Amino acid sequence: MESISSREEYLSRCVVDTLRRTFYIYSNQGDKKTVECDTPEEFMNVLNYVREHTPDDTLSYVNLS
Questions:
Q1: What is the DSSP letter of 47?
Q2: What CA–CA distance (Å, rounded) separates 48 from 21?
Q3: Half-sphere exposure of 5 (CA within 13 A, CB side)
Q4: Is 43 exposed, middle or buried (0-12, 13-18, 19+ CB in 10 A)?
Q5: What mean pLDDT is reported for the chain?
Q6: What span, in angstroms and rounded, lies between the C-alpha atoms of 52 and 45?
Q7: How confident is the model at residue 25 (pLDDT cuts 50, 70, 90)?
Q8: What value does the CA radius of gyration of the chain take, rounded to a whole number of Å?
Q9: Beta strands per DSSP E along the chain
Q10: For residue 7, what pLDDT is reported?
Q11: Distance, CA of 20 to CA of 46 (rounded, Å)
Q12: In whole angstroms, what is the distance from residue 47 CA to residue 5 CA?
């Protein structure tokens, strides 16, 4: 029998693209959401929230090199 926790959707990865002011959010079930910020202030607000609520091993940044 499948456990309830194996059916719950949760954040598996969050990728931050600072150049595009965009966040790519991935779930354990394969869903992907894109959050595009219109202003630098909006981007910084979302980034601060993400940093506070996302585990370090789940958060990554687009490599600019």
A1: H
A2: 13
A3: 0
A4: buried
A5: 91
A6: 11
A7: very high
A8: 14
A9: 11-17, 22-27, 32-36, 59-61
A10: 79
A11: 13
A12: 28
